[in-house]
Amino acid sequence: METNQSISIKNLALSFGALDVLKDLNLDVGQGEFLVLLGSSGCGKSTLLNCIAGLLDVSDGQIFIGGRNVTWEEPSERGIGMVFQSYALYPQMTVAGNLSFGLKNAGLPKAEIEERVNRAAKVLQIEPLLSRKPAALSGGQRQRAAIGRALVRDADVFLFDEPLSNLDAKLRADLRVEIKQLHQKLSNTMIYVTHDQIEAMTLADRIAIMRGGQILQLASPNEIYNRPANKYVAEFIGSPTMNFFEGDIVGGDGLRFSTGDQFFPLEGYEFHNGTPVQGPAWFGIRPEHMVTGAEADTAAIRLNGSVELVEPLGSDTLARVAVAGRSLWVRMDGQALVRDGDSVTVGFDPARANLFDKSSENRI
Fold this sequence. Notes:
The protein is of the alpha+beta class. It has two domains: about 5-235, P-loop containing nucleotide triphosphate hydrolases (Rossmann fold, 3-Layer(aba) Sandwich); about 235-355, CATH 2.40.50.140. Helix content is about 25%, strand content about 35%. The protein has nine helices and 20 strands. It has a six-stranded mixed β-sheet, sandwiched between helices. Strands 13-12-11-14-20 form a five-stranded antiparallel β-sheet, with no helix packed on it. It has a five-stranded antiparallel β-sheet with strand order 15-19-16-17-18. β7, α5 (about 170-185) and β8 form a beta-alpha-beta unit. α2 crosses α3, α2 runs parallel beside α4 (about 140-150) and α3 crosses α4 (about 140-150).
């Protein structure tokens, strides 16, 4: 295994009876990297995390942490700190007691335990809370205490299993910032499981999009957003989801996408394999890459439609527009004056589109 890899997973498989939960999965996580496992419920992301932690025995394959094969080692021997979705704090203990409990069981000297607890409390800004019990803490404070319990282990690798999903929206946003800052301070390897794409995009150095026990794409947030490997990834990332046109890539007077009676020129589109491909395809364009008003008048593609629904969000406005028998989402300026029933022209640049093969749904 390469020395700059903190975690390396080789041909990992896990089955429960006839059900294959993880399938021949390979993954390398760099030293100090923040990797997010992202996917819908049941995709295998938490299962993979539990295999890395040693909480589940794998059916096949190997797991290396820091160059050491830990496939059959106990969780306590793997040099990891884990933060769960539930805080799992001992209610009868203070925060300091919760943080120090595992260290006392490990037989560490009292002075070292106190130094580690105080260091973790300072990093997480929970020093005033050390004498409190969990019942006297808010949800965000409890989760910080749970993170502190992992932090005192002085581990090289931290595993987070949907740690913010029990919190309200504001607390999630606040703690997301704190976790990012924590990684910047510590530079430890972190693997973070979530189904929330905002958490994934804002926290990750790289994102692994999972489905059916496999990794569909492993790349930076920017790469996944701009060049999704397949239609599933394209639909999963982005809210509202990407708009899709069903049709064909055709030749003739330059390469074009044909859908109904519309033709979209593909000049400027960067094909994945460098070779223009003709045949049935999906044409995807994100709502934020569509324009209206004066900008639409000068766009390469212009479509006339009628507004079906308006969602004002303050910072921007989402409009669902009926165009030629299909509904498209368009992201507008927050102060856009648009109402249900308005006639609008929407435009976009085909170079910003994403093309996917109709049968395989892989990026063209």
